[in-house]
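quick one if you have a minute, typing this from the bus. theres a chain ive been looking at and ive put its sequence and its fold in C-alpha cell form underneath. please have a look and point out which stretches look like helix strand or loop to you. anything you notice is useful, everything is just below.

***
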Amino acid sequence: MKFWHLNKEAFTKTQKILIIIFITAVLFRIAFILTMPYLNVDSRYYDKIASNLAMGNGYSLSDSAPYSPDVNRPPLYPAFISVIYRIFGLHNYTAVRLTQALLDSFTCIVIYYIARIPFDSRASLFASALASVYPFTAIYTATLLRETLLTLLITITVLAAMNVAKNRSLKNCIFLGLFVGIGVLCKTIVLLFPLLLFFWLFFAYPDKKKTLIYAAITMIAVVVVMMPWGIRDYRLRNSSSNNDKLTFSETGGIGYDFYFGTLEYEYSTDEMVNHQDEIAEKERARDPSIGMSDGNLHYLKMGWERIKLNPVNYIINRIIHIPRVWITTFGVFNSLFLTSMAFTACILVLVLGLIGIWLAKPHWKESMPILLMIVYFTLVYFPFHAEARYTIPVRPCLLIFVAISLLQVGHVCRKFFVSWRTREKL
C-alpha cells in the first residue's frame, strides 16, 4: 500500500509514531550533550570564523584587525553557527548543540520518508527508530563539527535523488541540484554525487537523451548555488601570494589529506591518527618545503611524487584502509569497556547493513540512490587519509538496510518459534 493511500486512521497512527521517534531522538542526543566534550581543533576554527561573522568582521580566522579572509573552509557550517551566536550570544555552545540535536532528530524523520519509497511502512518506521538511538551520529550533535548539518543535507539529497529516479521531472532535478549545491557549501566532497547518480540512470532507463538533459539541468543548479562562493575564493586566491589556483574552499584540506594518505604504508594507524604532528616533523626533516606552503597544489604534487616511488604499495594500502572509513576505535570514550562496546557495535551495524543490502535485492532499483550515496562516500575518500567520521553523513542511510536485516532475523525467529510450538502440541 502506497504511503499516500493510507486511510486517515492509519496516517494518524504513523504520525504519532514519528512524533515519538522524534522526541526519543532529541532526548537521546541531549544525553550526549550533557556528557560529551564539545570542542576539538576543528571546532575552534569554526567557532572563530562564526564569531567573526557574528561580530561583522567577515569570514576570517584572524583574532584582530585586519581580518584576513579564510579560503580553506566552506561557509555553510560557520554561517550556521554565526546565526545562532547572533540570536543567543557569542560562544553559546549549548545553543549550537541543542540546535544540532533538533536537526539530527529531524534527520531520523527524513530517513522514514527515504525508506518508505522502496520498502513498507514497518521497515521504514523501524529504520527511523534505529536512527533515533544510533549513538555514532548522536555523538556529533554534542560537538561543534559540521557532521550533523551535513548528515541532514545528505539525507535530504538522497530523498531528492530517490524522487529523480522515480520521476525525472524538471522540478525534481532542480531540487536535487539545489541540495547538492548547498551540501557542497558544507563539504566540497559532495560535488560529484549527481554524476554517479545520472551515470546509473543513463544505463538503467531507456530514454538516454532525457537523462542527459536532466543531468545537465541538475549540475547547472549545483553550479548556480556554489558559484558566488567559488568566485569569491578564486579572486582571493589569485590576489594573494598563495600559488594555489584551485578555486573552492577546502581544497587545501584535500591536498593535505591526499599527501598524508601517501604516508600510510610507512606509518601505523595509531601514528597516523594520534601522532600527526610528530609525522609532520619527520617529513619536514626529509623535505624542508613541507609546511612552508599551505597551497593545495603543493601537497598534491608532493603526494603524487611519493606515489610514483611505489604505486603498488600505495594502491594496496588504500584498499586495506577502506574499512577504516566505517570502523573506528572510538578512543574519545576514555574507557576500554565503552571503546570495546562501541567498536563491536560498529562492526555489527556494518555487517547487518551489508546483509540487509543483499536481502533488499528485489528492491535494488528503487533503493539504488541510497546505495549509490553509501558507495560514493566510501570510495570518494580512497586516495586520501580518511577518518571514520567522514562516513557519518551516510550512516543513517545504512541503518535502513540494518532494519531490513533485523526484520528478517525476527521473521525467521518467529517461524522457528511457531514451528517449535506446533511440534510441542503434537
User: Anything to note?
Assistant: Residues 1-6 have pLDDT under 50 and may be disordered.
